[in-house]
Specification:
The complex is a heterodimer. Chain A is mainly α. Chain A has eleven helices and two strands. A two-stranded antiparallel ribbon of chain A has the order 1-2. The longest helix of chain A has about 40 residues, at about 145-180. The two termini of chain A are about 25 Å apart. Chain B is an alpha/beta fold. Chain B has eleven helices and 14 strands. Chain B is elongated, with a radius of gyration of 24 Å. The chains are: A mainly alpha, B alpha/beta. At the A-B interface, helix 1 and helix 6 of A face helix 3 of B.
Chain lengths: ~325, ~325
């Protein structure tokens, strides 16, 4: 079995699609580093001056200020909280890339790209094997179809997880490099790194599960175009229709659960609910629940693929 | 079931569902209708067994069932004595196959494609070199398959089938795309394999190829076996009435002379055709005595093509729609 998985990994690594996507990921990483590095600078004084200038440039009629102050007094707003005139803080934007706040965001960006890679590779490679006839050719060497399925899903799953881990780590490293050279490493560095690593680790789990789900779909559909079509229809049509038509079913959808697992939790408000209508209408998907749900979904998907592969003719 | 048989099917049935506009579920169309196939090694341990049939007769479906790619509806199948599909994992290491053209990764070199297959079975690299030499592809092995000609791909497919050093080789039209020299090389290779103890099941529509290389043959039509046995036996069985072909300068005078001697002759396409057990020497004597000197006198032997057409009917009547799935 290990030999079969190793062969599948070799086949996968040599695919042109995989190489092309890896190059695109590298381009994305480099361009992110370039853009973020160019935007980040340590001219805090200059940014403050600009903010003060912007605040001073706004003129508010005196009667409006007077009315604001009167209303604030009536509402017993403390003087230090009184905000009837624009202040520089309202216009200040820290020009530095701050690692403590940006590291988790960068890690999430890397995870997102890793997941896109995983989905495309899982569908593209398995679909292409059906189209090229190499799936059938492999069955002449290993007639136990379930073993072939497990090897293929394991290969795309391991590859997706590895690439997602690498992307999360690379993007976090880019954030650290920019912050150290052109930004700020102030704040809770350890906590930010911990969150970035946590998001990356969850992303790796999501990539592995996503590869199993969409890879199983490609095994059932036996076509890259068909599987991509199913994924597109589900993501664009089904998720949105269900969200609008049966809001409570949203908790069973793939997208929200993927996000909840990566970020640790996800709060969902049904479409059309009044803002602040109360916690009873708010879904909270916890990371643990989303993880268990996605694991169950992956098992069901792989099981369906195994049954289809076992029962259907390979022509 | 015969224990010595390397391939054995009995009453094999398989239908495919064909969808149509009139019916959402479609209707079942039989591809195999109780097909029997028996491939037994000769005393030398190997054999080359031809599997003949017109397009759509069920040849490829049979091979796919043998290899576990297609599930049968009914019947029994054994490969190297193992029941299919349950016993396939035990049989597969000794079975090499090439079904409906070779399937390779076009971006990879020929060597790398074989390497990937060899790794599945844990075969050493030396074996890849050996089979590449066998099919005379060693010099082009490092080139990408997408640059290969059809014949080179076919040879690579045969190399892949040989990789496991199989006891049984199942080949579906292995000479497709090969030039005459390549076809002859493959035929010689198959014959050598057959003589060296390998059993080869050769599906082909090239009757001359089968007649030249095979020890035995099974002819199928409409999913059923119409005849099977040693090639010479099948030819003898299908030969029908013995015919003597005679060519003389004056066909009418020749026919009259033979008629007077009590021998019935028909004029057919610039020659005289004598049916039945007519001694050639008597014909020669009768015509010679009347000064009708023969330019040709021969006994017409049945060709496999004649037997094939006689048994399977007009190929044009086969359903081309079924071709893709058989």
């Amino acid at each position: 079995m290990i030999r079969l998985v190793r062969v599948e990994l070799q086949r996968l690594a040599a695919r042109r699609l995989v190489k092309l996507l890896l190059v695109l990921l590298l381009v994305a990483l480099v361009s992110t580093a370039a853009v973020q590095g160019w935007q980040s600078n340590r001219d805090v004084a200059g940014a403050r001056a600009k903010a003060e200038q912007a605040a001073a440039g706004i003129s508010i009629p005196p009667d409006a200020i007077a009315q604001c102050e009167t209303e604030a007094k009536a509402q017993h707003v403390p003087p230090e909280a009184l905000r009837c005139r624009p202040v520089a803080a309202d216009f200040y934007h820290d020009p530095r890339l701050v690692y403590a706040t940006n590291a988790p965001l960068f890690a999430n960006g890397g995870v997102g790209l890793g997941l896109a890679f995983t989905g495309i590779v899982a569908i593209g490679v398995i679909g292409a094997e059906w189209a090229a006839g190499t799936f059938a050719a492999l069955l002449l060497w290993e007639p136990r179809r379930r073993r072939v399925l497990v090897a293929k899903l394991a290969a795309v799953s391991l590859t997706g997880a590895a690439v997602t881990a690498a992307m999360a780590a690379a993007f976090t490293a880019v954030a650290a490099a920019i912050a150290a050279t052109r930004g700020s490493m102030a704040g809770r560095i350890g906590a930010a790194t911990h969150i970035a690593v946590l998001h990356g680790a969850r992303g790796v789990l999501v990539a592995a599960l996503l590869a199993i789900v969409v890879g199983s779909l490609a095994v059932v559909v036996r076509s890259t175009a068909g599987a991509l079509g199913v994924v597109a229809i589900y993501a664009i049509v089904v998720e949105n229709v269900v969200r609008a038509w049966r809001p409570h079913w949203t908790r069973w959808q793939l997208g929200p659960n993927l996000i909840a697992l990566i970020s640790g939790r996800l709060d969902l408000e049904p479409v059309g609910s009044a803002p602040g209508s109360g916690p009873q209408q708010l879904f909270r998907l916890s990371g643990g629940r989303a993880g268990m749900y996605l694991v169950a979904l992956a098992i069901v998907a792989a099981g369906c693929a195994a049954v289809f592969l076992q029962r259907r003719d390979v022509t | 079931m015969t224990s010595a048989a390397v391939v054995e099917t009995r009453g094999l049935r398989k239908s495919y569902r064909h969808r149509s506009r009139s019916s959402l579920r479609g209707h079942l169309r039989p591809a195999l209708d109780g097909l029997d196939l028996l491939v037994e090694p000769t005393a030398g341990g190997g054999t080359v067994h031809g599997f003949l049939g017109p397009n759509g007769s069920g040849k490829t479906t049979t091979l796919r069932v043998l290899l576990g790619l297609v599930h049968r509806d009914a019947g029994e199948v054994r490969l190297l004595g193992h029941p299919v599909p349950a016993g396939l994992p035990a049989a597969a290491p000794a079975v090499g196959a090439l079904i409906e053209g070779p399937q390779f990764f076009p971006q990879f070199s020929g060597y790398r494609n074989l390497r990937l297959l060899a790794d599945v079975a844990g075969l050493p690299g030396q074996r890849i070199t050996e089979v590449l030499e066998q099919v005379e592809l060693r010099d082009r092995a490092k080139e990408r398959v997408k640059g290969y000609s059809l014949g080179m791909r076919q040879r690579l497919g045969i190399a892949a089938a040989l990789l496991k050093a199989p006891r049984l080789l199942i080949l579906d039209e292995p000479t497709n795309g090969l030039d005459p020299a390549g076809m002859r090389e493959v035929r010689q290779l198959l014959r050598r394999l057959g003589d060296s103890g390998v059993s080869v099941l050769l599906s082909s529509h090239l009757l001359a190829e089968v007649a030249q290389v095979c020890d035995a043959v099974t002819i199928v039509a409409h999913g059923r076996t119409v005849t099977a046995g040693a090639v010479q036996d099948v030819l003898a069985r299908g030969a029908g009435e013995r015919r003597l072909i005679v060519r003389v300068p004056d066909l009418t005078a020749g026919a009259r002379a033979l008629d007077e001697a009590g021998i019935t002759a028909e004029v057919e396409a610039e020659r005289l055709v004598l049916r039945g057990d007519v001694p050639a020497a008597a014909v020669n004597r009768v015509l010679g005595e009347r000064g009708l000197w023969l330019s040709e006198l021969r006994e017409e032997t049945a060709l496999l093509e004649d037997v094939f057409l006689a048994l399977t009917g007009d190929p044009a009547t086969d359903d081309p729609a079924a071709e893709g799935q058989t």
